[in-house]
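Continuing the batch. This is chain 6 of the set; chains 1 through 5 are on the previous pages. Same settings as before, nothing changed between runs. Recording input and output for traceability.
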Amino acid sequence: MPYGYYSYFYGYSYMGPTPGMVHPDSYYPFPQPLYSPLTPSFRSRTPGRNADYARKYYSHLARVNSPDTTIDYKKARFFVIKSFTEDNVHKSMKYQVWSSTNEGNKRLNDAYHKSVAEKVPLFLFFSVNGSKQFVGVAKMASEVDFKEGFAHWQQDRKWTGKFKVEWIFIKDIPNKEFKPIIVPSNENKSVTNMKDAQEIPFESGIKMLEIFKSYEAELSLLDGFEHYDSDERKSSDAKTHKPESFARIPQEGSRGRGKRRRGRGGARRVHEGKAESKKEEAKTQPATNP
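Output for chain 6:
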């Protein structure tokens, strides 16, 4: 496109003014998305407006971001989790589950069993691809169930297996707060450049926990809970209730009304209903001259 294009992860790319694509809050004629993974309009204009909704209807989120949360660990394990969409992270917070790729699930499952044996917690730092921020921290609370999936992901057939999580912090914290944390085992790159299901060294993980506890975030996914709940209901209704116009209604004389039989002459279709009644009428009527 000559003037601008939309990327799923990064929003609009500004290559010049595009007529007719002006954000209602913008003074400049540049294409700006009404909604994008980076700055969702439904949770950026009134910070905290929906956080109480999430805590009211989901009791397991009532203690999230508690100032009394313990982060003084002598030993713990930490992993980065990358999600394709904010919607899936909302599902994780709501249903207390998560699933990674097959390789990621195996890696996390092995780490979980070792952490249980050593009696140490295993923390997961969540980030949405392209968002340039971390959105929360959860504890891994069960081993991976490789046989049973989870039906509510945005791409429900793509992910197999699931495991339980317990959310500790839910805050939008920009990557710049974590940039100074360098991971030697990751080619001396910042922790913000780590991949999905990649382990964070203990010292770096503790620093990230300290940032999550002390950072005063203006926004979080809790602010978007009501919006995502509404989207989930609409999506569920669309899957379970097909519009009447899409229902398959057999028409008179259609192929669906016949029975297929095979004989020496190959496949032939014998129609029921009206065709059969005409044959019976022809038998009972007297013969007439041509």
